[in-house]
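Dear Dr. H.,

I hope your travels went smoothly. While you were away I took the liberty of generating a structure for the chain from your last submission, since the lab meeting agenda had it listed for discussion. I wanted you to have the full record in hand beforehand rather than looking at slides cold. The sequence, exactly as received, is reproduced here:
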Amino acid sequence: MKLALIGASGFVGNAVLKEAASRDHKVTAIVRSPAKVAALDGVTAFQADVNDVDALKVAISGSDVVVSAFNGGWGDPEIYAKHLAGSKAIVAAAKAAGKRVIVVGGAGSLEIDGKQLVDGPHFPEAYKDGARAARDALAALRSETGVEWSFLSPAIMMAPGERTGQFRTGGDQPVFDANGESHISVEDLAVAIVNEAEAPQHTGKRFTVGY
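The corresponding predicted structure, in token form, is as follows:
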């Protein structure tokens, strides 16, 4: 396949880039700084601003599917506004180009007992604005028409680890293991993303993965 990957030099994006390249897909890595893109076979770096819908439309025009691993920038005091605006621009570009889009969001909008994690008392303050932006980006996506989309929230805990290719899938609630933990390696999250790109199972839905 031909994938357009937005945010390819970030934590999740880099893992997706490696996973897609390992499956011999051709990837257009759309980033602000092309020098940060891993040099892999089949990967072409493309510099673009996510807020420039016209430029994004051009960048994704030759791709079969768009994967957005965009992040507004952890630690940026304006992350809420930047993440939400960028997320909406990416969807607008995908819609204009007639492309399917897979959006990687946070775990904060997952629900336990009908309450989203980001609204709970124990959610880390440092991540709240970014999580709220991802939550609101999902709400905006759910009201969209004329665009084929999927939204993937990782498990509550995500870290570098092992690529096992083995995990379970859920919907709006976190997936917990036998020890009551919700976790996934970024490598296996990338597997789930590329799986969805190859064979969509969650069109028009949010899904999550965990062990």
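Two observations you may find useful: Helices lie at 11-22, 53-60, 79-97, 125-142, 186-198. The CA atoms of residues 127 and 194 lie 26 Å apart.

With kind regards,
E. W.
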